[in-house]
Amino acid sequence: MCRYKLVKEALRERKYFLDTAPHLSSWLPIMIPIQKWWQAPYFWAGTKFYDFLAGSEGIESSYFLTKTRALDAFPMLRKDNLFGALVYYGNQLSLIRFGQVNKAHG
């Protein structure tokens, strides 16, 4: 239950930074390569649960990429044993910019 609370808190913080400081924060698509067919439902369930937790926080939904689409999007991926990929969205915070803003106002 402790991890659940941490994930919810992190999602709220991400949403807060996206709303209040869009110049410091942006969406970051994160791709998980899938090499075995049985990994697809396992990771899909995990990313969909993350989507569920994010629910009202306005984070974009995760999605599955076929092998062909994954290679089109990320041509440097190793082709051997690639089944597909899952993409979910996190948040990227520019700590350099954040530090500059704090320094200017601190």
Main attributes?
50% helix; 106 residues; alpha+beta; 3 strands; three-stranded antiparallel sheet; single chain; 4 helices
Instruction: Compute the separation of the termini in Å.
Output: 37 Å
List the total number of helices: 4
Order of helices and strands: HEHEHEH
CA-based gyration radius: 17 Å
Please give the share of residues in helix: 40-55%
Order of strands in the sheet with most strands:
1-3-2
Low-confidence stretches: none
Strand runs, count: 3
Structural class: alpha+beta
Taken as a percent bin, the fraction of beta residues is: 15-25%
Question: Into how many domains do the coordinates divide?
Answer: 1
Summarize the model shown.
The protein has four helices and three strands.
Structure, described:
This protein has 106 residues and is α+β, with helices and mostly antiparallel strands. The protein has one domain (2-94). The chain has 4 helices and 3 strands, in the order H-E-H-E-H-E-H. The protein has helices spanning 2-20, 39-54, 67-73, 95-105; strands at residues 25-34, 63-66, 84-93. Strands 1-3-2 form a 3-stranded antiparallel sheet. The radius of gyration is 17 Å and the shape is globular. It starts with a helix and ends with a helix.
